[in-house]
Amino acid sequence: MRLNYTVMSVFKYFTLILGAFAALLPLIVVLFTSLKSRAEMARSTALSPPENWLNFANYRKAFVDGNMLVGFMNTVIILAISIVGAILIGTMIAYILSRFEFFGSKAIMGLFLLATLIPSVTTQVATFQIINDLGLFNTRAAAIVLFMGTDIISVYIFIQFISQISQQLDESAMLDGASYLTIFARIILPLLKPAIATVLIVKGVNIYNDFYIPFLYMPKTELQVVSTALFKFKGPYGTQWEIISAGIMIAILPTLIVFLSLQKYIYNGFTQGAVK
């Protein structure tokens, strides 16, 4: 029995170390490359540590010449408006579907699930025509409207949390004369902070990493976001991997900081949603 436990423990830690190594190896290579000069790149291997750990010349060149400041500004604007809108829409839908019983509520949930099963590539022509007809092409509003679209994962997370909130709170507030909007704004929404943090991080990372929508709907140079700014290194710096690697590290840094700061909310949100 003790032998089996020891073997299982060794196997568990071996697989965890192997998984961590596979996940971190590309990042380590990119980090090492970003700190090397072009000459050092030519005479060293990908896994060789840089000679000077404080060589940030590639970062400066990537940030300034790659115009990444504009990319970060556009990303922050799109991200902030999209996240706030998506959370408001998602919490309202979840509140209605979990608290009210009406004809067609289950059909609405079914349609949400059905929409997630349709390959997004099959609707791109129609989506592009709608955005173009609305006059949103080549504006930040195009990406904001598309990112604000409610996704079933967010709604599902909110529904799981709302179902844990006692309906007696709603009834007590109604006896005091509170309207449904007041109950939602002053009782439900504050109690959804862990779920909101989870959706904020998960959806925020998806928006931050998304390349397709900004590339297709905002081709103007002054509208570039971080992902499309990074893609533009492909042209002038096509073979300068040290510059490209520095740009990648700059793009990774904000996501990494946010994730490490708020990771407990992500785990709590998914765990509480999973046990229901």
Describe what this molecule looks like in 3D.
With 276 residues, the chain is mostly helical. 75% of the residues lie in helices and 0% in strands. Helix 4 runs parallel beside helix 7 and helix 4 crosses helix 8. 25% of the residues are buried.
Summarize the structure.
The protein is mainly alpha-helical and 276 residues long. The chain has helices at residues 2-34, 38-43, 57-65, 68-99, 105-117, 124-133, 140-148, 152-162, 167-175, 180-191, 193-209, 212-217, 226-231, 241-274.
Summary tags:
276 residues, 14 helices, 75% helix, globular
Secondary structural class: mainly alpha
The rounded Rg comes to 23 Å
Question: Strand share of the residues?
Answer: under 5%
Q: Topology as H/E string? A: HHHHHHHHHHHHHH
**Unreliable segments of 5+ consecutive residues:** none
Query: Ends: how far apart?
Result: 34 Å
The best one-word shape is globular
Number of strands: 0
Helix-strand layout with pairing:
Layout: H1 2-34, H2 38-43, H3 57-65, H4 68-99, H5 105-117, H6 124-133, H7 140-148, H8 152-162, H9 167-175, H10 180-191, H11 193-209, H12 212-217, H13 226-231, H14 241-274
Keywords: Cell membrane, Membrane, Transmembrane, Transmembrane helix, Transport
Main location: membrane
Transmembrane segments: 12-35, 76-97, 109-131, 137-159, 180-202, 243-262
